[in-house]
């Protein structure tokens, strides 16, 4: 017959009463020879992401891996409604369930009556110490035991005809920030200190916080203020003064919970409710005299011993934390982690540990990252696992009875996996701290792994990009060469076309002269005088034609020389831009016999370093273009030049009031030999030359832009020096 396994759902492991209750459950499991799985999954629906992330543990429970379930309901449900708690418990059906510290219809429960002991404690302050102004420090509003104790406080006041005052009640924030709680307690006390005589506290932990708060402002317990509490946690005898409190039967409740769940598993449906009741322990904090008896001295000695063990465990986990953070090698080198973590487990007397990590962020499949048992490192399984595999086959040997704790690995809301440890001699604090250390480690580990992967991917991308750039450069060079050849071909064709006409006319005229001269040298009718007259007439007609067309060829050759930017002479110089532009535009107005009006618009004056001769030639060609494209030869053109600065760039906008440049030809206007005027007098090289001068000589750019009032508008952008 397989050994039965029960699960324990409890919010955490680090609180004093949790340690006591878990100890009672472990003792009973040992006596009954059953396995125990502890799931410290946090309170339900906590706003603290460190706690709510732990709730994932509750999804690991079902009837295929757990025979019965004990739920410490009081601590679990501090933040939720009864309806939310009901729904949570029902998720485990059909697993048999027993509830601790909670009455709940339809489920077996083990309940500690805290109403009557708290009422008796408050009555002790009222009747034995004659106090009437008694405050109360509460627990969470949703906490069933907290509500019972608060009700007992109010009823004790009412039965003694003491009015209840809401300002005498401090509502605990239940924050993880203890400093915030202590400041809140001081502020509350300062508001009622003139009247307050004593305080009843929900539990020993809050009582210890209140004592710390009062010590800060010089209030003595019990000389200035009486104090009583609840729970009798092990360290209550370590406080000064010794706490008057109620001994809560945590250990007994835990043991009885195991017996109840076994009965439920065995099918005993007639389980009676089991109610326990705490007992009052009168000590010093209320104002009574108290001396340690032999039993209490033994408790103090045990407490001192356990504190020594706790300090040793703290040193061990701090050493582990230091090792894992000492060097990035420990984050990336698995052998280093195995060595350091195995040493920690051995020194902490933890018999067995397995770590399962999710393969991806979807949290669907896992792999076994680490496996350790009885002082030696095991080879992790290479099998890809699902959550079901972890739930049903956690990897813990079943030959012997075991108690193991399942801890989530998380950082904020991200879950990395689970740790399963067999409980050793350490207290709950050690396992809680271990959970956070490993969560932080695997967060950093995954972050570094991700960075390494991204770095490798980036390196691959860079290598691919370098190869692509090399290929693009090679392709670009081929394209540039192709474009140069195509441009040269177009330019050569254009030059040939432009030169062919005047040269053809000149050649025809010269050929005609040659034939006339041949007739003069060898006249057919021996009338040399007549042939001479014919030659003279031919010369009169042909020589002007030859001269005119050869001059046209010379002009074209001169223009072609301007196309070669590197042939343009001139040196760089510094000019004041607006003054230089005004000077140039005024000279152009004179050259064109006042057929143009010019306007130079500028803000602040500034200087640039440029080739002044090149800039003058650019403006000259643009002005000539404006005049040639005006409505008629007698039209008067208005030309404006507007200069501005943007950062280090100089922007020159040149525009006229002519017909403008149609959109459909704007892509061609900087091509060689493109012209809308035609005719031998306009070869179409002006804007081609301007584009070359701006782009290659001045290292700038030129484009056609639109203006609201029409006309041709060119924007020249010159880079800063």
TrEMBL record:
EC numbers: 2.7.13.3
Principal EC category: transferase
Reaction it catalyzes: ATP + protein L-histidine = ADP + protein N-phospho-L-histidine
Protein name: histidine kinase
Keywords, in A-Z order: DNA-binding, Kinase, Phosphoprotein, Transcription, Transcription regulation, Transferase
GO molecular function: DNA-binding transcription factor activity; phosphorelay sensor kinase activity; transcription cis-regulatory region binding
PROSITE patterns from the UniProt entry: HIS_KIN
The keyword Transferase appears for this protein: yes
Residue ranges annotated for the Histidine kinase domain, each copy included: 494-721
């Amino acid at each position: 017959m397989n050994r039965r396994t029960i699960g324990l759902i409890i919010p955490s492991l680090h609180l004093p009463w949790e340690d006591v209750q878990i100890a009672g459950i472990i003792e009973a499991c040992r006596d009954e020879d059953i396995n125990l799985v502890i799931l410290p999954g946090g309170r339900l629906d906590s706003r603290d992401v460190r706690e709510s992330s732990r709730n994932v543990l509750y999804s690991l429970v079902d009837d295929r891996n757990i025979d019965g379930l004990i739920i410490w309901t009081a601590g679990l449900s501090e933040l939720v409604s009864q309806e939310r708690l009901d729904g949570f418990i029902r998720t485990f059906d059909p697993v048999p369930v027993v509830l601790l510290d909670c009455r709940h219809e339809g489920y077996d429960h083990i309940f500690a009556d805290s109403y009557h002991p708290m009422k008796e404690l408050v009555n002790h302050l009222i009747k034995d110490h004659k106090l009437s102004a008694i405050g109360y420090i509460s627990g969470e509003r949703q906490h069933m035991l907290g509500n019972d104790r608060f009700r007992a406080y109010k009823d004790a006041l009412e039965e003694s005809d003491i009015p209840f005052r809401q300002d005498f009640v401090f509502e605990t924030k239940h924050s993880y920030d203890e400093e915030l709680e202590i400041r809140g307690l001081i502020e509350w006390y300062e508001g009622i200190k003139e009247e307050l005589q004593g305080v009843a506290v929900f539990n020993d932990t809050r009582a210890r916080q209140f004592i710390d708060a009062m010590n800060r402002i010089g209030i003595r317990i019990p000389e200035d203020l009486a104090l009583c509490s609840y729970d009798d946690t092990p360290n209550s005898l370590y406080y000064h003064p010794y706490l008057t409190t109620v001994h809560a039967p945590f250990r007994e409740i835990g043991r009885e919970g195991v017996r109840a769940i076994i009965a439920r598993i065995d099918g005993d449906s007639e389980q009676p409710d089991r109610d326990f009741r705490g007992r009052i322990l009168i000590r010093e904090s209320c104002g009574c005299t108290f001396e340690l008896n032999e039993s209490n001295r033994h408790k103090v000695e045990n407490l001192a011993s356990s504190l020594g063990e706790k300090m040793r465990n703290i040193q061990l986990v701090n050493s582990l934390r230091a090792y894992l953070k000492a060097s990035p090698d420990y984050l990336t080198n698995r052998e280093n982690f195995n060595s350091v973590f195995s040493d920690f487990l051995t020194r902490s007397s933890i018999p067995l540990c397995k770590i399962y990590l999710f393969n991806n962020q979807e949290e669907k499949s896992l792999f076994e990252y680490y496996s350790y048992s009885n002082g030696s490192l095991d080879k992790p399984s290479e099998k890809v696992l699902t959550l079901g595999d972890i739930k049903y086959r956690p990897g813990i040997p079943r030959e012997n009875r075991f108690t193991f704790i399942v801890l989530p690995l998380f950082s904020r809301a991200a879950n990395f996996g689970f740790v399963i440890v067999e409980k050793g001699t350490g207290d709950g604090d050690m396992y809680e701290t271990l959970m956070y250390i490993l969560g932080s480690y695997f967060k950093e580990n995954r972050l570094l792994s991700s960075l390494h992967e991204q770095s490798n991917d980036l390196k691959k991308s860079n290598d691919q990009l370098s190869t692509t750039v090399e290929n693009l450069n090679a392709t670009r060079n081929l394209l540039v060469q192709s474009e140069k050849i195509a441009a040269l071909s177009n330019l050569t064709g254009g030059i040939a076309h432009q030169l062919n006409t005047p040269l053809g006319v000149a050649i025809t005229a010269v050929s005609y002269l040659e034939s006339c001269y041949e007739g003069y040298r060898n006249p057919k009718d021996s009338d040399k005088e007549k042939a001479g007259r014919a030659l003279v007439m031919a010369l009169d007609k042909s020589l002007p034609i030859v001269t005119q067309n050869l001059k046209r060829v010379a002009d074209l050759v001169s223009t072609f020389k301007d196309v070669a930017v590197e042939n343009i002479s001139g040196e760089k110089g510094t000019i004041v831009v607006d003054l230089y532009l005004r000077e140039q535009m005024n000279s152009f107005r004179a050259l064109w016999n006042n057929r143009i009006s010019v306007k130079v618009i500028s803000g602040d004056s500034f200087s640039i370093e440029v080739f002044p001769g090149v800039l003058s030639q650019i403006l000259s060609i643009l002005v000539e273009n404006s005049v040639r494209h005006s409505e008629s030869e007698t039209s008067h053109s208005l030309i404006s030049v507007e200069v501005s600065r943007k950062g280090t760039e100089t922007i020159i906008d040149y525009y006229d009031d002519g017909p403008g440049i149609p959109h459909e030809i704007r892509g061609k206007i900087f091509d060689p030999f493109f012209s809308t005027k035609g005719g031998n007098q306009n070869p179409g090289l002006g804007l081609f030359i301007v584009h070359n001068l701006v782009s290659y000589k001045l290292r700038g750019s030129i484009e056609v832009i639109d203006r609201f009032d029409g006309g041709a508008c060119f924007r020249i952008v010159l880079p800063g020096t």
